[in-house]
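Hello again, I could really use a second opinion on something today. I owe you a coffee for this, so here goes:
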Amino acid sequence: MPSASTIQTLTQLSYLIAAALFILGLKRMSSPVTAVSGVRWAGVGMLLATIVTLAFMGTSSLNLMLVIVAIAIGTVIAWVSGKRVAMTDMPQMIALYNGMGGGAAAAIAAVELYSGNEHNPVHLTMAAVGGFIGAVSFSGSLIAFAKLQGLITKSVRFSGQKFVNLAILLITVGFGFMVVSGAGADSGLPIVSLLFVFALILGVAMTLPIGGADMPVVISLYNALTGLAVGFEGFVLDNAAMIIAGTVVGSAGTLLTQLMAKAMNRSLGNVLFSNFGETSAAGSGGVTGTQKAIEASDAGVMMAYSQKIIIVPGYGLAVAQAQHKVWELTQLLMDHGVKVRFAIHPVAGRMPGHMNVLLAEAGVPYDLISDLDEINAEFETADVALIIGANDVVNPDARANKSSPIYGMPILNADKAKNVIVIKRGQGQGFSGIDNALFVLDQTRMLYGDAQAAVSQLIQAVKAAG
């Protein structure tokens, strides 16, 4: 039987290896080419940390058995749901799973705070702060899931809402201070309960007013909060793997939130504290003109005789599950000698990287996919910009109309292409609820219909064009 010091050394060494695997995995996830292997490396790190924790947790056989059963049940649920979930539902699944992470961190804090065990002030503060953040992430992520799933269809806004949310925050912080300082020692359990109750309410209150256009920011923000909560609880449990994993996830999530906010022309402070997701159609009245329809047969001929086409995918492509048909069309066009590229906006879809994942699933080579900064200058030389289900990310009002709610937001310069074909189910607006000036430009033609059906028609038209 190894000594306690030997066990401690092996445990910390294993956690160090697991942390290195986490960081290596995250690094490899930064590129689509190595992302799959990055997920696997991070998974190996998590498996190692879990096995080591179970092997040396020093608890009763009953508790160990309960932990193993819980892990087995969670693994089965995750495996089945992960296999069955459609790509269109991936954002809400991520929101749900992220919420579970925040809830787990809050549960750890609750166990520590309800246990009545003596903690030094630092650990007690870490537990309270981690529990607060985890509870906010849990309830907020559940609301984000409900919005993405269509269970909540309207954003809840009312006069003085910011002050109500601020009051909830101050009350929650007050209960947290009472827990940490011992001011509520005579009624410790009720005070702890109120801390978690108001933290959960705060998560709901923060997320209810947020519109669909800001969901990518919401998901990455709550991801950062979950990581931060896990890191705090790692300090409470003196678990190096949790500290490192939580810190990595929290910092990565914070950076991603900043990038998403920048892509939507929002500062992080604006995202957190001001009119979060509150857009209005007030600036949409400047769009004048009529949308001009085109038949798939005519659009197919135009594309078949083009030299360069840039395809801009959006959420409509995901809804229609048209990515495989789009790749089929791309291959057909390239066989005709047409140069085809894909342009991806950072907030296209409903989560960061949504369009990249869809195109990768269809087998689109990574070297055909470019982000906004890489591709924008090429629109001027494109014969056709094919917009599939995208809206706000190609709206030129973001550049030209100062009264538009999205003014200043970086966009893809699709309006600079010689011809623009927009595949859209109808004449409705995008997530931001404003009209798109691109749709009424002289060079723009609208191909109405489901994206998969429309692309199938384009394929037949290109084939017929010879």
The longest helix spans residues 121-149. Residues 276-284 have pLDDT under 50 and may be disordered. Residues 136 and 203 are 4 Å apart (CA to CA). The beta strands are 308-313, 339-344, 369-371, 384-388, 419-424, 444-448.
